[in-house]
Amino acid sequence: MKIEYHETTNDLQTRIDIHSKYGSRDIDSWMLDILQLRPGNRILDVGCGSGKQCFSFYHHLQGKADITGGDVNKDLLNQAREANRKIGEPMAFIDLNFNEEFPLLSDSYDLVSCCFAIYYAEDIPFTIGEMHRVIKPGGRLFTTGPMPANKQVFYDIIREATGKAIPPMPGSSRYSTQIYASIEKLFKKVETHIFENPLIFESVEPFLAYTRASLAEDRKLWNSFFQTKEDFERIMGQIEAVAARRLAAEGRLVMTKVVGGFIATK
Ligand SMILES: C[S@@+](CC[C@H](N)C(=O)[O-])C[C@H]1O[C@@H](n2cnc3c(N)ncnc32)[C@H](O)[C@@H]1O
Fold it and tell me: What local confidence, expressed as pLDDT, does residue 226 receive?
């Protein structure tokens, strides 16, 4: 399965900022709660982007950890490296394409994490296999991604605005069919945790900013909706009209992020 995907630096940051500004729950705290990391842990974060989880793990463990982040996107890696330099370069940020064999030794990490990225893999069993290979016996894999109930309002508004069916989203559609199945096959045990975070919008602007940053990221997935920039702007206009109407009727828009976290033990 070939998924055309390119995350831009700005789109990712826009969504991260909107989550923290309009949501009441903090996903980093949730991860830290369920993961129970220990000082001295060797951690690899795959698809680390600009390093959000690496920095969260590092600060939580007060620097007492050996953390490596890997990603295929040079811009995001540079951002992570820049932030890492500012704190004395305690972590390593490496080029890592999870569609290829990892340039890492087997049985070497206590934890491999992969947050909001695994579903872009071309061959999920292969990527999960590589993660399993580099985890120490008894070590853990942690993956997160959207569940099928994620962002209902977002999809409802787009459906109403366009009159079209929503294309299958790789995150939620691949979770149960491929990701969970591959993990369960290779690992001794898997636990599932669910995180819900209602984002409350009292005006349409942040909702529209979120929508732009989501549709632009996954533009290839939205091929049936628009091909040109003009189409994109026309669709955004329709989405704005529907969102404004709903907001006027209900007083606010509540878009709940529903995220699944799988913790698997090797
Ligand atoms: C939605 S971002 C999540 C980034 C980060 N984990 C976070 O939560 O902020 C998805 C990440 O997957 C990365 N990615 C996509 N394809 C990849 C590949 N083939 N190998 C490694 N990383 C990849 C992207 O570059 C991007 O950083």
Answer: 83
Q: Please tell me the distance between residue 66's alpha carbon and the centre of ligand 1 in angstroms.
A: 20
Where residue 228 falls (left for φ over 0; alpha for ψ -120 to 50; beta otherwise) is: beta
Distance of alpha carbon 159 from alpha carbon 165, whole angstroms: 6
Q: Tell me the best of 16, 120, 130 to mutate to test the pocket of ligand 1, counting ligand atoms within 8 Å of each CB and taking the most.
A: 120
Whose tokens are 């953390």? That residue is: 67
Closest ligand 1 atom number to CA of residue 76:
27
Rounded CA gap, 182 and 36, in Å? 24
Q: Given this model, what pLDDT does residue 7 score?
A: 54
State yes or no: pLDDT of 73 exceeds 90.
yes
- Predicted TM-score of the model (pTM): 0.86
Residue nearest to atom 17 of ligand 1 (CA): 72
DSSP label of 179? I
Q: Where are the domains of the chain?
A: 9-265
Residue 3 has pLDDT above 70, yes or no: no
99 in contact with ligand 1, CB cutoff 6 A: yes
Instruction: With a cut of 80, say whether residue 172 has pLDDT above it.
Output: no
Ligand 1: residue of 52, 56, 72 to mutate (most ligand atoms within 8 A of CB) is: 72
- Residue 15, ligand 1, Cβ within 6 A: no
What pLDDT is stored for residue 38 in this prediction?
97
Fold of 9-265: Rossmann fold (3.40.50)
Residue spans of beta strands (DSSP E) within the chain: 42-46, 66-71, 92-95, 109-115, 135-146, 189-201, 253-265
